[in-house]
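Researcher: Batch entry, complex prediction.
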Amino acid sequence: MSNWPAETKYIGHSTARIDAPAKLTGKARYASDIQAEGWLYGMILRSKWPAAKILSVNLDKARQIPGVKAAVVARDGSFTIRFYGEEIAAVAGTSKQVCLDALRAIEVQAEVRHEFVVNENEARKENAAQVWAGSPNVPATPHVRENGSVDTAFPECAAVIKGFYTTAVQIHHPMETHGNTVSWTDDGVTAWASTQGVSSVRDGLAGALQLDHSQVRVITEYMGGGFGSKLGAGVEGALAAKLSKAAKAPVRLMLTRFDQSLAVGNRPSSFQKIKMGATADGMLHAFEMENYGTAGIGAGGDSGGGSGSADIPAPYIYKVPNTRVKQSAVAVNAGASRAFRAPGNPPASFGMESAMDDLAVKLGMDPLELRLKNDPSPIRQREYKLGAEKFGWKEKYQKPGSSSGVVKTGIGCAGAAWPAGGASRNTQGEAQINPDGSIEFRLGVQDIGTGTKTVIAVVAAEMLGLKPEQITVRVGDTRFPPGPGSGGSTTCGSVSATVFDVCTNALQQLQTQSGLADARGENWFAACKKLGVNPLVVHGKWQPGLTADHACGVQFAEVEVDTETGLVTVKKILGVHDCGLIVNQVTLESQINGGIIMGMGYALYEERVMDDLSGVVLNPNFETYKLPGIADVPDIEIVLINMPERGVIGIGEPATVPTAGAIANAVANAIGVRVCSLPITPAKILAALGKVPPATA
Amino acid sequence: MNAFTYATAHSPASARQLVADKGAYLAGGNDLLGLLKEYLVSADILVNIKSLPGLDKIERGEKFWTIGSLVTVAQIEDHAEIKETFPGLHEAASEVASQQIRNVATVGGNLAQHSRCWYFRHRDTQCLKKDGDLCYALNGENRYHSLFTGNTCISPVVSSLATIFASLDATAIVLRDGQETRQNMAELYQRAWENPLAHNSLKNGDLILRVEIPTTRSRSAYLQVSDRHAFDWALVSCAAAADVVDGKLKSPRVALGSISPVPHQVETANRFLDGKVLDNATATQAADMILKDAKPLEHNAYKVPLAHALIRRTLLKLKGDA
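Model: Structure tokens for the complex:
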């Protein structure tokens, strides 16, 4: 049992975001809104070649342009370019146009290399251009994991399927682009950063600039999304600092949408060759997978939580007694991957859940039944049963392709796991209680749009017997007690337990100092008054018994597919999710909505398209890098399982994991054939239906 | 973007004079500003034509309607009588981009817009359309490209209005060298069929003044399919218009967008449909004829069945309930 109160007024209920008015009125200042005294625009010159050796960079002409206050190189001396868009230099000036003119005036001498490769299948070939000279694009030995005996197990299976399931590189496109305003003075560096980790940005900047940690302050009052890609300062952060030092003025360097498409990380692709077998009663018996994907020129960047490779968990949420999994990452001349909301999980879920449905077809079983037979998680078992009832699975389920008419309907489901989602045990916080009864919480964590500030207010109000609006919350400053980077769905747990501890300590001290037996609720102001003139400052930190990990979750999808045009319309998504003790329902549901919509984009629209011949990213904008718009978003229903006994668990990541698999299965159920490749476009639907003629050229 | 001067014109003649040989007309600016910012187009002067008198009107006539080139796409979409008289035009207008863009996008700008080919639009590819040596799309990423072309550039026309105007046999009145010239949609785009550098037949300094739509076709329809439901370019668009007399088609015209550098029209199919009673078989035959000479590439062959379906559906929509 967790230590959370059993009866609650705010925890588990819904409190609107405490900063909603500030956000809606424009009072909230994001990194891209900061206008420090005397600030300049900053911009980056990027390579127009996918591979080159930069011999020299001459900034003289750029510096002569009126309004240009500084120009710096990204790296000293001669250096190698390995992808289109890699940073070469940066400028700071008094207007955007001045900077654009300056970028065009920079003279770059380069030895352009025509040997490069941007396609992972080409890069795997023996004679492919090497991304890293002297090192093969694919490591000689894949990562191999083996259990039981696959080779003897397959002949024992009653049904065996083979599939080749592929997913595209997904680009990080938070609504607020990456960037910072950096001010470098003799007193040190202040960075207003759009980041998921004020502490990691401080440490990263201090390292890059060779300063003491104490000389760098990072502030993130508001930020517009990161999804794993904003845990470090980035090349753009260090360049902004260098520009600020050179210009002796604050520099705001926010990336453009074009920049964003090239160099801030992405989710690696996956090419999953799966063979899977079950016994006649539907029990999974053998699983074999060979998978490769590209993490671009490498993995991780300086994201701190990088995905590290293109590997994915397999056979994902299922236990198969006999498995063999071989995986490798393929280097290509493209921007590196970074952690991306539940790294590895959405592609793993799509591949495995597709294979599950294909196997169900082969076994002649209802795919939900096959999951109930094989899913080892009692929580997901419960979620599937609850969801099936809500969704009307039994009534809606038809054999694949048996829906009549030109526009066919289909349903599918898929499951999620998120092994992390616990908490950072080093999280600290403090509260200042003033004699007038006002109270301010200060945590060196940041609210990346998930509602962290509101969670802090909700927990504090609950513990102190106050209202959430009576709690002042300050986050996003390295001068506050250290908090974790917002990654791995750990923030909610980290701050909830920390605030719990701060409040426990506060009440103890307040009761001691005031002599009141219970300082909560109606006694609060009387107790505070007894503090006299000095505010009470109390600290606290994460404590055991309040948080947990391993959230599950299942989703059901209903789609319509026009078999003549290939257009897919998602009609409904039902998400059944657990995340331990629900802290604030409305912001929790908001996380799940966002996860589902992002999963829809992954399923149907998003794909980095690169050109083999020129090596450029062809869709560096929202015109052709397609994200779901509101017209695409279906009816989303969320069912939550509150499990207070487990403590607090984050939801950000599991919410997006199963969507693509559920949609892909619904599409296959509708049309009777599988589109094995994400995104599922009209072109691929028509091809799967055998309607596309051969090319003539 | 490069520096330019700016002037507002108050008559077509002065607009023409101001734009001289290196300027550009500015109305809604949706396309032009993007082209300037990406350094794809350069102009020494932008001539604001939004104040040209009389070009923002929709005028009804017995034989034809006149739509001024400064009429916004939203004006067309919201025009109740257009919806009644030219339902296909209403449908095409309502599919253009987003509400915000439709509010400022003009008829002239929609017709004169440049290619959306992602190689053409990319700042660092020097493709055929930008006077480079090759069409990258031909053997590259050509999922959004043409099934038909008269030259070696395969970027398609994407104007929704051009597609529906072609089916309605509308005429653009273009001010050229001080004279009003008349060009139907085939003529307005003919040069893009022949010349990879061209987006349409307009010459430098040409100014679209208005579009005349004959009222001879009482039925019209427009359909498009995109990758998604949110605003997006058409993968294929199709427009059809005809009069229906005693259940038989009269003067039918079908035009498709996004599959050719010009609105794709096949006269033999139009003649075939003339006098026919519409049914699925007839529509299928017409679709076969319209797509007979398609040359699908590696990634755009899906447009053939998609176009086929849209032709059938658009034609059958002409039957209507009326």
